[in-house]
Write a structure and sequence with these properties.
The chain is of the alpha/beta class and 347 residues long. The protein is 43% helix and 16% strand. The strands form 2 sheets. Strands 2-1-3-4-5-6 form a 6-stranded parallel β-sheet, sandwiched between helices. The radius of gyration is 20 Å and the shape is globular.
């Protein structure tokens, strides 16, 4: 039985894909009989206060000298490289996507994050990433050796097939309301499809970036779509499963994804997907399961949504493809074992 340490910033119960990944890894490790310690690193990452950063370093320095520690990339990339070097633990970084690739950050911050993360990754004994696309990004843009990187794809739970919303097709968009998720592009696209029957549900946190949420509400009202687009907000795990089951089409216009767990979950429910050629999405969503359009192109997105709404046979074909693909996706115990094996090998 291995003793596994996983350091995660913020609240582990947060309803995002990255935190879901951490929760599932910890759950599966415990189910496999491992001794697991979770170190909460505090709030505000990747831009923590100095006090939070210093406390995170104190907690990590208090671990046994022979420990192998997995640190979520939201925090790892901004830990001082000098601290990581001097403390001399076996550091493993979990990188969902490089911090500098977050949409909407200022150029100076983007440069600072890249410099910080690149320096921190030098000190990692190994790096776990959630997609081949992120692995390539680290190798090509961060000078990381291929031999130092392992891909551990997010898992999915076995799920029943979606039954749909009835007479009016339901479009489901799951993702925190941030600029990167492209809800503004989706609103613009849907405003071009007033002549078709549809309802759309935005499921995800509205509090991460209040300005984005306010702008979306204004855009929806300005387009006269208040009765057709509902900003649902966060829902718990059971509520999210209900959302998937009662949907007909999954659509999310992300400007970048390191993997895109919600796309995998949608396909596991047999939902056809409409998304963008962004980051790892083309590798996550096969042609048999959905339609991909250029980033920031409302007209192309409207055309793809309209095609699925107007052509039920095409939609059914893609739904069948999504269901078939979804049944072969990784399961969480496999993902957790991949990571625990790496940690034991590193130790």
């Amino acid at each position: 039985m291995a003793h596994l340490i996983f350091a995660v910033p913020g609240d582990l119960a947060t309803l995002t894909g990255g935190y879901a990944y951490a929760r599932e890894i910890i759950r599966c490790w415990k189910s496999a009989g491992h001794s697991v310690r979770h170190i909460p690193l505090g709030e505000g990452f990747p831009s923590p206060s100095q006090d939070v950063l210093e406390d995170a370093c104190r907690q990590l320095a208090a671990t046994p000298e022979d420990a192998t520690i997995l640190i979520d990339g939201l925090a790892y990339g901004v830990l001082p490289a000098a601290f990581l070097q001097q403390t001399r633990r076996r550091w493993l970084a979990l990188v969902h996507h490089p911090l500098a690739l977050e949409t909407g950050i200022a150029p100076a911050e983007q440069i600072a994050l890249k410099v910080s993360e690149q320096a921190a990754l030098v000190e990692a004994a190994h790096i776990v990433v959630t997609s081949p696309a992120t692995a390539r990004e680290l190798v090509t843009s961060y000078a990381v050796s291929e031999q130092k990187v392992t891909v551990a794809l997010p898992g999915v739970e076995a799920a029943g097939r979606a039954t749909g919303g009835g007479d009016v097709p339901v479009l489901l968009s799951v993702g925190t309301l941030t600029r990167r998720k492209g809800h503004d592009v989706l609103v613009a696209a849907l405003s071009e499809l007033r002549d078709l029957d549809w309802k759309c549900r935005f499921v995800g946190s509205t509090g991460r970036d209040p300005a984005v949420t306010d702008n979306l509400r204004r855009a929806i009202a300005g387009a006269g779509l208040e009765q057709r687009i509902e900003i649902v907000g966060e829902v718990d795990s059971d509520g999210l499963q209900d959302e998937y089951r009662q949907a007909d089409i999954f659509v999310l216009a992300s400007r970048y994804e390191g993997y895109g767990m919600v796309f995998a979950e949608a396909m596991a429910h047999g939902l056809p997907v409409i998304a963008c050629h962004a980051g790892a999405v083309p590798e996550t969503v096969p042609d048999s399961a959905g339609i991909l359009v250029p980033v920031d192109d409302p007209a192309a997105l409207a055309q793809a949504v309209g095609l699925m709404l107007r052509d039920p046979s095409r939609r059914q074909m893609l739904a069948d493809g999504a269901w078939l693909h979804g049944q072969g996706l990784a399961r969480w115990p496999d993902t957790a074992k991949t990571i625990s094996d790496i940690m034991e090998q590193t130790a």
